[in-house]
Structures are given as structure tokens and as C-alpha cells.
Amino acid sequence: MKALPTQLPIFIQVAKTGSFAKAARALGISAPAVSKAIGKLEEEWQVKLFHRSSHSLSLTQMGEQLFDSLTPSVESIQHTIERITDDSQSLSGKLKINLPSSSIGQEHILPLILDFMEAYPEITCDLHFDDRVVDLVEHGFDLGIGTAINQDSRLIARRLFEVGIGVYATPDYLAHYGKPTTIKALDQHKCIPVRSTTSGRFHGWRLNDGEGNKLYEPKGKLIVNHFRAAKQATLASAGISCLGSWMFKQELEQNKVVPLLESYWGEPIQVWVYYSSREYLPTRVRTLIDYLVSNIDKVL
Q1: Where among 18, 53, 85 does a domain terminate?
Q2: Does residue 1 fall inside a structural domain?
Q3: Tens digits of per-residue pLDDT, 4-30?
Q4: Does some domain include residue 3?
Q5: By CB atoms within 10 Å of each CB, which of 68, 126, 256, 262 scores lowest?
Q6: Which positions fall inside the HTH lysR-type domain (predicted)?
Q7: d(CA 175, CA 236)
Q8: What is the mean pLDDT of residues 39-60?
Q9: Is 242 within the bounds of a domain?
Q10: Which residues contact 25 (CB under 8 A, 6 or more apart)?
Q11: Residues 6+ apart with CB under 8 A from 159
Q12: Is the Cβ–Cβ distance between 20 and 7 less than 8 Å?
């Protein structure tokens, strides 16, 4: 009996993603290494598995048959290996996690992950802070945190918490410039837009004008690319900001900021943890998910 080629997992990843480059990113190897592995597999079996052109890559009929036949078996073997090597008493390995670059990721989730790593010192966490909706499967993430779930049947979403978003200013700013009473009135005020650090676009203000939630585009001469900077600028009476209510929790209790246009605030935003829907999750992934869900109240 011939030994199974070691290139089979690479073949399956290329077939799934339809790209040598995407498969390489998911596997953590170079694109030339992926191309070489597929070439070696085709040479060994004397079978063409992919149609190649300068702009596309697709499975041949033989490649489709091989993919359909082998994928369940190879994935089952991989999951079995992970299962028997996972020691639930001493978790180890690497977790690749996608987090929002906003304060949700840095001020809420990051502290919990640091606590998790103290509890499980053999685990390595590779954190990526990104505001974009990222394809977790394609980029090889174990899990992600966000408010916008990629509509992908391969993913499972589990609710973490909800956050209220509101409009705020200081009493000093309002004494000098007046208090806006409508969304339209914001056009006459010094708003503080926040630019995404990854997409470069401004974060819209999620407000409800009576006909449903809409994104108001703030305008102002002071533009920042971090929510904490917007908070500090607001406290310095430099303008009006739209931020998570948790960011002004202490300042609201001390009457240092005033909520504005409360009747126009949108519904609270749901924050989710989402992950691959494969049948077997490594114990380290499932343990982190359970830890986040159980401990999220500590950072709210």
C-alpha cells in the first residue's frame, strides 16, 4: 500500500480557497511552496488537478472528484489528531484571534485575553486588531469578535454583550455653543469624527430619526483615528462626540459630560464572538470562547 501524500491538506486548502496565495496565508507557508506541493502531487499521480491561468484557478473534473472524496476523511484525521493531543488539564498551542481596533477590542476583550493567558500559560495568542469584516476561515483565524457578522454558513455566532452608543459634550462646550436639539442641528456644531485605523473611513454616528437607524456623517475640523482620543477631546470641550456609553461611565456620574439627543440614539449594538462551524473545535478555542462569555461582565 502506498503512503498517503503529505500534500493532501495543501490540495484541500487550495481547492477550498481557489487560490494559491489564500491557501498559503491560511496554512502559514509561502505561495511558491503551495504551488510546488500541488505540482509534485500532480506529477506523482500523473493527473491534472487544477486549471490554471493568469487570472483564475479552478478544479479539473478529476480534481473535483478527489476533493469531494478526500476532504471528509482528511479533516476527520486532523480533528482526531487535535483531539488526542489536546490535554484539557494543560492547554497549549496557538490561538489566532481577530479583534476590533476600537475600544471594544482594546479595553474590553484584550484584558480578558490577558487574564486567560495567565490561567493557561502554555497558550500563545496572536491578536489582530482590524475594523474590517474579515473572512475568518480564509485568513486562518480561530475566532473573531465584532458587531458585524460575516454572513457565512461556515461560522457560528455567540452573543457576548450589547453596548449603548450615545452623543456627548461637556457643560462648558454647551454653555459656549448651545445645545443641539435635532440631528440636523449637529451640522452647526463642532463634531469630532473618528477615522478607522484600518479602512481609513469615518465611523458614522448611528442615530434614529424616527424612520429607523441611519448613519449620520459628522463634520468637524478636529479629526482623530482613535476613540480614546475623541473622548479626551470631548472632555477638553473641543466638540461633540458619539461614543460608547461605557467610555463616559465615570464622567457621567461626576457630571463632567452631558448626554445629548437621547431620543435619537439608535438601539444598542450586539457584540458577538464568532468561529468556525466545524464539528470539532480544539479544546483551547472552546475554552477561550467559554471564558469570554463567562467573564465579560467583569470589564463592562
Answers
A1: 85
A2: no
A3: 678 888 888 898 888 898 888 888 888
A4: no
A5: 262
A6: 1-60
A7: 14
A8: 87
A9: yes
A10: 138, 139, 140
A11: 270, 271, 272
A12: no
